Amino acid sequence: MTLPTDLAGRPVIVGAGLAGLLCALRLSPAPCVLASRAPLGTEGSSAWAQGGIAAAVGADDSPALHHDDTLVAGDGLCDPDTVRAVTAAGPEVIALLSRYGVRFDRASDGTLATGLEAAHSRRRIVHAAGDATGAEIVRALAEAVRATPSIAVIERACLVAIATDGQGGPVRGAVLLVDGERVLLPTARLILATGGVGGLFRDTTNPPGATGTGLAAAARAGARLGELEFVQFHPTALAAGAVASAPLPLVSEAVRGEGAILVDETGARFTEELAPRDVVSRAVWHHLLAGHRVFLDARTVLGSHFAVRFPGIDAACRARGIDPATMPIPVRPAAHYHMGGVLVDADGRSTVPGLYACGEVACTGLHGANRLASNSLLEAAAGAIAVARAIAAAPVPVPASRLLPDAVTASRSDTLATVRQAMSRSAGVLRDAAGLEAAIATLLPLAPADDAALVGLMVCVAAHDRTESRGGHFRTDHPGRDALPIRRSLTATEALSRAAAIIAPARKLAS
Ligand SMILES: Cc1cc2nc3c(=O)[nH]c(=O)nc-3n(C[C@H](O)[C@H](O)[C@H](O)COP(=O)(O)OP(=O)(O)OC[C@H]3O[C@@H](n4cnc5c(N)ncnc54)[C@H](O)[C@@H]3O)c2cc1C
Question: From the CA of 260, how far away is ligand 1's center (Å)?
């Protein structure tokens, strides 16, 4: 398999969710390549986003208020400059997406309709088609991409490695698996927009392909990854009719925003529904561990209006025999969003020259220890715009052609099952040193040759070494928080040697 030679040297964007599609559009009319494992619009979390996109567009709102809410949720680990820039960009992002054809829901006077979600002090969640915001955004952007001749779309192309001049050296190309064959696409500018890691957990709201292959490729190329321990668990995934290893449908926080309550099998409330997500997830998890069942009850506040306001969630419930108008919805926490990722600066530049990242795969410092609901679509859009701007402003480098590096193949499914089991047992809502050490012992031998195991290992090492509880990371053996919030990052090499050191005492005892 050979790719057209005129594609060599163009910026290569990998991933076709909101971040990848918008980055390609913002680079135009300059030529670029958009490589995606699946046909445009058919894989990725973006198309599944329900609640909407946070932006201070209301008359009673301001970017400053949005900024303050984001900092509170981030629990001391946000980068204040990033928070300021991204929240300020909110209204312009909505205007830009509208210009690309996204049809946001509007009131009868034409103003944007806004919803409320937990830990937002104002109604600022801009949505489309009720609870189908992501699908509408991806529809419009994919159409715009297909109509833009400067964007060469390569579908069914999976990034398996990044070619560099030595470990951590400048980017020389993207190694793609196309039609089962590895090909090198020479480029000095590679933009990762490959999404999150929820697929590494048994219970997840993410598409199954969200196993961190982009993160692994960046790590193997020598990039620093930041805040990996911070995974957000959504408290209300639909816990009915679950199929092994299939994602759990999400029951959006917007449902609680409309007043639905969390109850157990006795009908008793046990938590504050609009507390930050990590707090609600832990409350639900503790209640489940105590032997209760947990339900989201929207009967009184929404009743028959549920199907109108949340048609997608209504359909998912009905497919599992639940009518939200008349029945409480069974729910449980599930891995939902990764605050950590490829460490990038304000322009989306990683620590590897020529390697950029935007969207969920990136760690920009916006979310800190905990993402404020609906800030991720905003971050994906703002990050994509920033990367495209930075690339357009930089001189065009000349890529050197190079032999294929010794790329790692995609995870085998039996290994993925092992990774999921280890991550779900040890790196879930509640963590402790013993559990994390057990997961590290399982994952370390697999990590050199398996991408899912490498990413899982790096998450567990970061979680092991954060001996405090903060945001989405809760250690039952260290429930307090350190006085000084510290942001951390690590490379794959550091993680592998740290993992070996962590499990060395147990190995010594066993021998
Ligand atoms: C059910 C659900 C509901 C959500 N609701 C909201 C919400 O209401 N508001 C909000 O702000 N956020 C929400 N989120 C989070 C948000 O959707 C994501 O953070 C965001 O869409 C990520 O966008 P992205 O472009 O970075 O990645 P994605 O949209 O996940 O796209 C990743 C792309 O990368 C491709 N890819 C991955 N690996 C490779 C590879 N190795 N080679 C080639 N291609 C690859 C995939 O095929 C896909 O095209 C939700 C998430 C889920 C799962």
Answer: 26
